[in-house]
Design goal:
Elements lengths: L8 H15 L5 H29 L6 H29 L7 H56 L2 H17 L1 H21 L5 E2 H19 L3 E5 L8 E3 L3 H12 L8 E8 L2 E7 L13 H13 L4 E5 L2 E7 L1 E2 L3
Parallel strand pairs: 2-4
Antiparallel strand pairs: 1-3, 3-8, 4-5, 5-7, 6-7
């Protein structure tokens, strides 16, 4: 992983080696300089590469502790090994005869340099993560607000209101009791929309009660040409889901498919492995309904935003299928 650094490390290595060579009065200057440049390069460049390697494996802010512990262990081991290797090479070439005191001194110097390098790089990296985290938080807030607005806008869709009021008007003279029930379910829908507008999750039971009210209004309009099948009762209290997603899927199926007496639209719901599978038989309109293609994208973004999970949408064997990951109660 490339490390963002505000300086050229090779120039600093050269400068540090020159400084150390000038500080030592005994021995040949160039021998001292070469020895120092070797130690500095081995310590600095090796630990630099280790820092990048560790970051690739623990790149997140919440992994900071694990990253620091791993880096510390690897750096100490590498520094001791690298310092010992260079010390033995210098003895082999006769530039610095082996002495335990000298060996210990260069190892302590190496550990000091390593500590400075690690602190500088980790501080820069953590600061960058912190800035990125703040920017991401603001982006997520804006995305959440936009998706919430889109969901609310869908619920006051003028076509839905127009069709619902038309259905109500036709019911009142012929079946006042059913008309009253229609008004109750209609009011329940909008009450629910107002109640959940600021919530990231609702229980699956709450969402299904809402969808049942929504489907009731649709069945007044389409009758038995629209079939809604589900066997979720034993799962309703075990899971949570972002609100209004199911209603959007039902509305999407109504919008893009023909619903006729001899070609009923069947929407089925079932749960498989903590995933809600919503599917409907495909009988696409001859003239497709106008679509901005944002509905399904909004669902994907909402699930990523609030649950960090992926929704899937696909066509298979004559069905349109949506796989919506659920949030178990224990989570």
């Amino acid at each position: 992983m490339k490390i963002k650094a505000p300086f050229d490390r090779y120039l600093l290595m050269l400068g540090l080696a020159l400084l150390l060579a000038n500080l030592r009065t005994e021995g040949h200057f160039w021998h001292q300089f070469i020895a120092n440049i070797l130690f500095t390069f081995v310590y600095w460049e090796g630990n630099y590469q280790l820092v990048g390697w560790v970051r690739e494996r623990f790149p997140l802010m919440q992994q900071t502790r694990k990253r620091i512990v791993t880096q510390t262990g690897l750096s100490i081991g590498y520094t001791i090994l690298g310092g010992t290797t260079v010390t033995l090479l210098l003895d082999l070439f006769g530039w610095a005869p082996y002495e335990w005191d000298y060996h210990l001194r260069v190892l302590l110097m190496g550990l000091f340099i390593t500590a400075i390098i690690a602190i500088v790089y980790e501080t820069i990296f953590y600061f960058d993560l912190w800035k990125s985290s703040l920017l991401e938080s603001e982006r997520l807030k804006k995305t959440a607000a936009r998706l919430q607005f889109e969901s609310l806008k869908n619920q006051v869709n003028p076509h839905f209101l127009f069709n619902s009021l038309n259905s109500l008007a036709s019911l009142i003279p012929v079946d006042p009791v059913k008309a009253e029930k229609f008004v109750q379910e209609f009011a329940r829908i909008y009450r629910y929309v107002l109640e959940v507008k600021d919530r990231n999750f609702v229980s699956l039971r709450e969402e299904m009660d809402f969808v049942s009210s929504f489907v009731y209004l649709l069945k007044i309009r389409f009758g038995e040409h629209l079939k809604f099948e589900q066997q979720l009762e034993k799962h309703l209290d075990r899971y949570h889901i972002p609100p209004l997603i199911l209603q959007n899927l039902v509305e999407n199926a109504i919008k893009h498919n023909v619903i006729l007496k001899d070609r009923p639209l069947v929407i089925r719901l079932e749960i498989q492995n903590d995933t809600l599978l919503v599917r409907n038989n495909l009988q696409k309109r001859s003239y497709p309904a106008a679509s901005t293609q944002t509905g399904l994208r909004n669902m994907v973004q909402r699930l990523q935003l609030v649950a960090n999970k992926d929704a899937k949408f696909y066509e298979k064997e004559g069905y349109f299928c949506a796989e919506i990951p659920l949030i178990p109660e224990s989570d």
